[in-house]
Design a protein that fits this description.
- This protein has about 400 residues and is of the alpha+beta class.
- The protein folds into three domains: about 10-120, Butyryl-Coa Dehydrogenase, subunit A, domain 1 (Orthogonal Bundle); about 125-235, Beta Barrel (Butyryl-CoA Dehydrogenase, subunit A, domain 2); about 250-370, no CATH class.
- It is about 45% helix and about 10% strand.
- It has helices spanning about 5-20, 25-30, 40-50, 70-80, 90-105, 110-120, 235-250, 260-270, 275-305, 315-335, 350-360, 370-380, and strands spanning about 125-130, 145-150, 150-160, 170-175, 185-190, 200-205, 210-225, 225-230.
- It has a four-stranded mixed β-sheet.
- Strand 2 and strand 3 form a beta hairpin.
- The longest helix is centred in the C-terminal third of the chain and has 29 residues, at about 275-305.
- It starts with 5 loop residues before the first helix and ends in a 29-residue tail after the last helix.
Length: about 400
């Protein structure tokens, strides 16, 4: 049987989506509609059908459950999927960060074990990096993994972990050698989120939602086979995963809900301010920024799917997307006035706009703060001198970092 050509693949994807996926309303596509709320069970069932139909892991190797097609096929599917509401919130971290890192660094056994269930929705993944005392400076993490026989025992706390309460597995970085400098004594593991000793607590934010979670590890056993990459080589593994994350955030070509140009134009008209010269100038600026972010994201996504690493340019895309979110939220706040901070709970439109405004600051923190992105761009893209790091070669146990106020004792 002859291989399916790109136009045929695109047509098949369009037909399948029409039959199986809910279509976005005009408001959803504009960014002002109420998002469909998928529950985990229906999201898993949909992802299983998506994979069975050949539309999950399109450019991933067939040996691990992917479709073995080209990046062009993936782009074609993404373009067709823009008008449909897919349950990406449960699978974005696994598909955009953990899976690609496993394909890069995982053993053959790990890839055979984890990739197919990830693609089919059988297993949901989370990323376990940040800690109460190690956010922007992740290398200051204090979660410990102590070697014990044929495995490790993990103790500590992670925070700001998306989808943790739904996750089956997580990619965890923990300190395995406190006698090494802080960047050198870290190892990445696959951890079972249902294992004894794992506790997940949702964190409610100012939007009223609980997107993030804190996760506690109390003597959790992790097999040696769950090490991703090399023991004490977890920092390079984390950097690789963060690159995938920044490309996934900044390189997304999917429409973003919230304060988009189209939705804000409609809002300005409904509020009788479409002729206001100040509002018109802000909307023009928003259009330019939105197009620039979209085009840069499209380029990085295309390069990534062709096997070309965007490297630190992913930080530029992530920073641009975060700045766009905050700028657009500012325009929305100007238009909705007091509804941005206090609204009638029976008014769904006001609640949507308030949610867009209140959630915007998180874009400047999640995936690495704007300040961190600027440092990366300056040092690794522009070639500027590095920030001074007096603790780079000091053993971690001798540092006073994060919540560690004295020498580490273990």
């Amino acid at each position: 049987m002859a291989p399916e050509e790109l136009p045929d693949f695109r047509a098949r994807a369009r037909v399948w989506l029409e039959v199986n996926a809910p279509r976005r309303s005009d408001d959803d596509r504009a960014g002002s509609g109420a998002a469909r709320r998928w529950d985990l069970s229906s999201a898993r069932a949909f992802q299983a059908r998506l994979h069975a139909a050949g539309f999950a892991g399109i450019a991933w190797p067939t040996a691990y459950g992917g479709q073995g097609r080209t990046p062009a096929d993936q782009r074609a599917f993404d373009e067709e999927a823009r008008d449909f509401d897919l349950p990406g919130e449960f699978f974005t971290i696994g598909m955009g960060m953990c899976g690609p890192t496993l394909l890069d660094l995982g053993t053959e056994e790990q890839k055979l074990r984890y990739i197919r269930p990830l693609l089919s929705g059988e297993e949901v993944w989370c990323q376990l990096f940040s800690e109460p005392g190690a956010g922007s400076d992740v290398a200051s993490l204090q979660t410990r993994a102590v070697s014990d026989g044929d495995g490790w025992v993990v103790s500590g706390q992670k925070v700001w972990t998306s989808v943790a309460r739904f996750a089956d597995l997580g990619a965890l970085i923990a300190r395995t050698d406190p006698d090494r400098p802080k960047h050198d004594g870290i190892t990445m593991f696959v951890v079972d989120m249902h294992a004894p000793g794992v506790t997940v607590r949702p964190l409610r934010d100012m939007t009223g939602g609980a997107t993030f979670n804190e996760v506690f590890f109390d003597g959790v056993r992790v097999p040696q086979a769950n090490v991703i990459g090399d023991v004490n080589g977890g920092w390079s593994a984390a950097i690789r995963m963060l690159l995938h994350e920044r490309v996934a955030i900044g390189g997304s070509t999917q429409p973003r809900r919230g304060a988009t140009f189209t939705s804000l134009v409609d809002l300005a008209r409904s509020r009788g301010r479409s002729r206001d010269p100040v509002i018109r100038q802000q909307l023009a600026e928003l259009y330019v920024r939105q197009r620039a972010v979209h085009l840069l994201g499209t380029r990085l996504a295309q390069e990534a799917r062709q096997g070309l690493s965007p490297g630190s340019r992913g930080s530029a895309a992530k920073l641009a997307a975060a700045e766009l979110a905050r700028f657009s939220a500012g325009v929305a706040a100007e238009l909705v006035g007091g509804d941005a901070i206090a609204w009638d709970s029976s008014d769904p439109e006001a609640a949507r706009w308030a949610g867009a405004v209140l959630s915007a600051p998180a874009a400047a923190i999640a995936g690495g703060s704007n300040e961190i992105q600027r440092n990366i761009i300056g040092e690794r893209v522009l070639g500027l001198p590095k920030e001074p790091q007096v603790d780079r070669d000091v053993p971690f146990r001798e540092l006073r970092v994060g919540t560690q106020t004295g020498p580490a004792t273990s």
